[in-house]
Every structure is written in C-alpha cells, then in structure tokens.
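INFO  loader      accepted 1 record
INFO  loader      residues=218
INFO  predictor   begin
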Amino acid sequence: MNGTKVYFLVIEYIKTLVQQGTLSFGGRLPSERQLMTTLGLSRNSIREALRSLENMGIIESRHGKGNFLVNHIDQSLDSIFSLLLFMNECSSQEVSELRRSIEIGAYLLAVNQADDTAIQALALSLDRLKNSSVKDRAQMDKQFHDTLINISGNRLMKLLNNTLSQPFENVIQQTQTQIPASQWDALLAYHTRICECLLARDKAAGINAIMEHYDCIR
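INFO  predictor   done
INFO  writer      dumping tokens
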C-alpha cells in the first residue's frame, strides 16, 4: 500500500477516535503497535504516516511518551508561506491582498457580534500603536490587525492570520522603512478610523477605511 493511502487511513482512524470521544487535542494516540494491529499495516508504513502528520503539525512525537494530537497547523503553514515568498512563488503584495480580504471579513463579524469589552481591546491596541517608537511600529501595527481579526471570533480566520503573521510583519516592516513621516500619519489615521467605525458599528465606513488603508500601503 502506498504512503498516500496509509496517511489517509491513519487520518480517518484519528477522526473516528475523536468522534467517539476517546481522543481530543492534547491526548495520546494509540501506540504504533496498536495502530499496526487495528489498521493491518506494517510498522514502517505507520511510522511514515505519523512523520507526515507531525510535519503537518497535526501530531507531536514526544520521546519516550508517544504521539499526541496537537494543533500546530499554523506553524506548518507559516513555513510554507515563508518558503513561497523566498522562492518568489508569491509576492509581498499578494500576502497583503490576502490579509485585506481576511480583515474585511473579520471586521464584518466583529461589527455584528463583538461586545464593547472586545472592541475596547482594539482601542487599546490603537493607543499602543500611536505611542510606539519607530523601532516598535511594525510590531504594534501587526498587533492592531491581529486584535481586529481575533475579536471576530472566527477560528479559521485566526488560523490564517497566524499563518500569515510573520510574512505580514515583514511586509509592514518593509513598508514603514520606505514611507515619510507624513504618510505614516495618514496610515495612523486609517487605523483610527477603523477603530472608530467599529465602535459606531458602521459596516460601510469601516470597510472603506480598511480598503483605503491597504490601498495606501500598495
């Protein structure tokens, strides 16, 4: 049986254990011997499949303890995006465009469901950005956008955001080293408008502010 079929067999078995309630994140998978017996596969096939799952961030192998179900997929995807950028298979502009799409969707969700406490967290991020030094601007800028996406409550958006976190911070860093102080003031004004529109629960104006912000970066 080829490696692809083995991989899918192991995945389906893990899904069955989760559905049965016998396995959850942080839980230990059956031993290699148990997997061999249950699935009727060789030790080499099982080990190859488990290595693939570990590389994907689905399981974690702990020496002397076994294999555990984890959720490190964002780290795996982050490495893939970084490699794509390095190999010029995608551009910083494409990363920025993807982030803009995620952020617009997150904003719409936040308008509908975020409570005042969550929105105040965005206002706090804005204050930190306004008071940040030139050296810390990129990090504070990213934190503002991260906060907006987090308060959307959408786990897949947060996963994609975490995946793009380092590449996007690099985009911000590159942008901020090239812009004059006057343009930085304009960018900061967009952040302020986004926060104010969210506080006012204004969908259209908030989306316009996000669009204009990314257009300014471009």
